[in-house]
Amino acid sequence: MCGILGIISKKALQNFRSDYFDPLSHALDQMDYRGPDNKGIWMEDGICLGHRRLSIIDLSADGNQPFHSSCERYVIVFNGEIFNYLELKSDLKKLGHVFRTETDTEVILAAFSQYGADFCKVLRGMFALVIYDRTEKEVVFARDRLGKKPLFIYENEEVLLFSSEIKFFHAFNTIALELDEESLLNFLSLQYIPGPSTIYKKIRQVSPGNIYRYALGKNLGETVTYWSIFDHVGQRKELMELEEVDSLIQKSIQYRLIANVDIGLLLSGGIDSSLLACYMQQLAGKKVKAFTVGFADTSIDESVFAKKVATSLDLDLVQLRLGDITAADFSDAIYHADQPLGDSAIIPTYLIAKSISQHVKVVLSGEGADELFHGYDHYRYEKYFYQLGKLPFGGANAFLALISGLGIKKFDRIKNKLRSIQSFNYDTGVSRWTSILSPELSRNYLSDSYKNTEDYSEQFNGFLQQFGKSSGKLESSLMLDLLTWLPDDLLVKTDRMMMACSVEARTPFLDHQLVEEVVKSSSHFNNNLFQSKNYLRQLLKKKLPAAVSELIANRPKHGFETPKLHWMNSSLSELSSYLFSEENLKKNPYLNSDAVLTLWNNSKKRMPGTNYRLVWNIFCFLEWYRQHETKFGLK
């Protein structure tokens, strides 16, 4: 797990050192949290590759990067881990390859040399990498299948830059970074920015499962998809057996326990992490160190369940208690989130990563289980939505309005959500439930200049159409999070907050072979085993003592809740008052200051119908924008 940063000049640049090399070196110094163990830079013929190393496999200097193949033809910078590198190494040795190190990095280069453009197909892991072919003068950019590791590209007529984090492009004073209004609108609606777009106009992400090949002499680029989830959807007629799911998860965890450093576990006390704890306790060969976070607010505190699991499995449990956070905690989390991200769980994730870094370099985490096995409430809502959809939605809304008028408050929230849903111009699947507002309603909070901006809804609808070629409408909707919410919110949160503290997070539920088998079974998504993670509940009951397994397996889904409103009105009140002040809002050219100020005042008065998620989301953007204006300290 590392950080990468580099430059490709498209023409002879007179001031290459001062304009590009020196800023790159400075940026790598600032990126040291992604890789405190080594800094490396290599430069030749207008290309410069930079690397920060967090050593996990082969801790010796042999693993430092940029890394050269033994023939010196290929140079690589690589962020991530290849979990099947030992098997690949064995296969490549039989084909005549000779290895001089124990690194997975060297195995990637050998696979690239052997398989060419198909090399990513044999990699099992998480990665963002850049390989330079010195003979062909070609640069290859690649990203893992599900988007666990980030890779951003900035390009203009003179230069192509790449980075693990978007903020470090600010180090280069010769390039202009202008906000993308469509991405801002999408952020206001979703709390994250869907890729491959970014918050800046000339910066894009390499999409998950893609390779971008760039020829230096010709200044030509080509994108190739080496893996697509659509190729696997609905390909299986029979339902997955519990034993098959068990075997796939166990194999995934076995791979992710490969390291030359200690590995811990994020343990919330929910189904996913408790199941990971069972497998780890069985496979690790030594006592497992687990980490949990508790809140002073008992209504959102799950640590009592984590303690029961840890006791039953004899885990070494490290507990972190969170009360009020500081303004510095909030600002640091926004800084490390990199792009605007309104997921309030970034803050406890960041704080627990700080604690973890004192004990281990690697942790296993449960991301992906809810998306694969339908653990979120919004999957249930979507099924109700399709059932209600047989009737006119206006009638459903009128019915819920009647119930709301009887004083049942939770139906008022549903009524407001339906009002938002009715204003969508396209079907956007389950994202209608996770969104804060529809794009149409979010436009009210943009300044007049940007209200006609396009939005994400056509892109999401396109994903649904692709899924629909091999699956039904409901099943297609239930898979959408795997392409949207997961890579652009949850995996961003995990990567950025953990790496901010030099910790690598591994996600066994997102092993691509497990994902492939689950989506192959999409025609069975209405089966009871796919209802609220019943596959995982059954496995947990087989692996935990009965008293504990019943307690954990029968718990309703409890998301990573945070007391964000309390934070804004206590430890963050001074910062929030400043950011939402009329003076500060008037300086922001992108927001409708009057609409935002009204929203803020309504939230302070606890006015009925106030969208508090939107308040928090805008709060996060205002802090991000404040840091953007200072170029994140990279001037």
Characterise this structure:
This protein is an alpha+beta fold and 635 residues long. It has three domains: 2-227, Glutamine Phosphoribosylpyrophosphate, subunit 1, domain 1; 233-442 and 450-558, HUPs (Rossmann fold, 3-Layer(aba) Sandwich), CATH 3.40.50; 563-635, no CATH class. 42% of the residues lie in helices and 15% in strands. The chain has 26 helices and 17 strands. It has a six-stranded antiparallel sheet with strand order 2-3-1-9-8-10, covered by helices on one side. Strands 4-5-6-7-11-12 form a six-stranded antiparallel sheet, with helices on one face. The chain has a five-stranded parallel sheet with strand order 15-14-13-16-17, with helices on both faces. Helix 6 runs parallel beside helix 7 (303-313), helix 7 runs antiparallel to helix 21 (546-553) and helix 9 (346-356) packs parallel to helix 18 (485-499). The radius of gyration is 24 Å and the shape is globular. The model has no long low-confidence stretch (mean pLDDT 92).
